[in-house]
Amino acid sequence: MSRFFSAKFDRLIPYVPGEQPKGKNVFIKLNTNESPFPPSPKAQKYAAEAIEKTMLYSDPECFRLRAALADRYGVDADNVICGNGSDDILNFAFSAFCDEKTPAVFADITYGFYRVFAEYNRVPYRIIPLKDDFTIDPADYFNAEGTVFIANPNAPTGIALPVGEIEEIIKNNPENIVVIDEAYVDFGAVSCVPLTKKYDNLVVTETFSKSRSLAGARLGFAVANKELITDLNTVRNSTNPYNVNSITQAAGIGSLEDREYTDENCRKIMQTRKQTEIELKKLGFVFTDSSANFIFAAHPDHPGGEIYKALREKGVLIRHFDADRIKDYNRITVGSDEQMEKLIQKLRCII
Ligand code: PMP
Q: Could you identify the atom of ligand 1 that is nearest to the CA of residue 86?
């Protein structure tokens, strides 16, 4: 830290993204929940065309992209905001909907960035432990007296809360905002987007990084009632109105036009997840009931950190977290069938 760094950030511990290997080592990369499939053909085509126009600023309103999203999700374009990844929008939400009197409220085991966003925005936060089986007790979030952030499916557990239970949380927080982070919803969970028409205190965030294979393009969006979207836009337009570049906007539109491609890839991932779970079980692993593109697995005879290190030495990257409650586990992204077969081969040697 330099002597000039603002004192307001002197305790800020930044989020640590999963390792992105550099150099000659070729890893099987199962550590950041990326898709093993390339972006859709139309996403690639539209992005290539858009690069020719990058002497111009991108559309700060993301007009065509929001119209395409509105069409896809059965809402109005005024109900949609786009961001530089869904992280961008989650950060806006911490900024717009939390303050000294309105803490952020989230689980002990969930997306690690929530704590960082709270610290960065200098708002208080209250942590609610998950149950022993890593599920959420909806009643823990009733009348939360703060802004609730729930990843559904949760990360890194992959466990999804049924929509009915989320609706109970929303209903029991008439004076609070509930943000549902649906980064992994396309791999077997049910989206709360339709509930945004019924409740004026619900924000749903989604991403193009996982099911739509556009992690590197950085595109996320949120759906909510018009007033909440206006608040998020006030924060966005006060920081970076051009937060989504024009190549990414074009790729997003292309991807939405190729919906069958995305749906087919999600089906493949879910099938591969099932097959990998069968193989992991044969090796003695236990895992949570995942509705995401990753498996959260532990082995009774081998500490999580040991498996992570042994796999790394054998050229496979998975994600290990040090937090006490989950240190026995590893989060393994579901890649292609071929990648998962190699993973299982290496685990067979290790176990
Ligand atoms: N929410 C959750 C639960 C995540 O795991 C991630 C991915 N790290 C994100 C949001 C953010 O994804 P992106 O910014 O790529 O949309």
A: 16
What b-and-e string marks burial along 256-265, b requiring 16 or more CB atoms within 10 Å of the CB? Answer: bbbeebbeeb
Nearest CA to 334 among 165, 232, 211?
A: 211
The whole-model pTM stands at 0.97
Rounded distance from Cα 240 to ligand 1 centre (Å): 20
* Domain termination residue (choose one: 257, 276, 300): 257
Q: Which atom of ligand 1 approaches the CA of 220 most closely? A: 16
CB 331 within 8 A of CB 323: no
323 and 209 in a common domain? no
**Is residue 167 domain-resident?**
yes
Q: Convert the pLDDT of each residue in 255-313 to its tens digit.
A: 999 999 999 999 999 999 999 999 999 999 999 999 999 999 999 999 999 999 999 99
Q: Is the CB of 110 under 6 A from ligand 1?
A: no
